[in-house]
Here is the input.
Amino acid sequence: MELKDTVKLMLSADFKERFQAEYHQDKKRAEGLEKMLKALKAGTLPFKPKCSYELLHEQLIYMKAKLKVLEERARIEQIDLSEL
Here is the structure.
């Protein structure tokens, strides 16, 4: 799933669909940041970030924590988070 695939859900009147979009957007961004950090550590990233690895890694930690919170909310509110 790409971010563009979540646009319709983001604009939905149904909060469950907006929630699904938020989750999938956050998950995609966290995966992208994790991939970037692996490339940075391996020396294969095609650019040099201005931020330190440590700051970017801290951001990833918080992003993953938010995903866990969203997963718990989805469980409680019975929102399906499987790929759309």
User: Anything to note?
Assistant: The chain has one domain: 3-77. The CA atoms of residues 29 and 63 lie 9 Å apart. The mean pLDDT is 95.
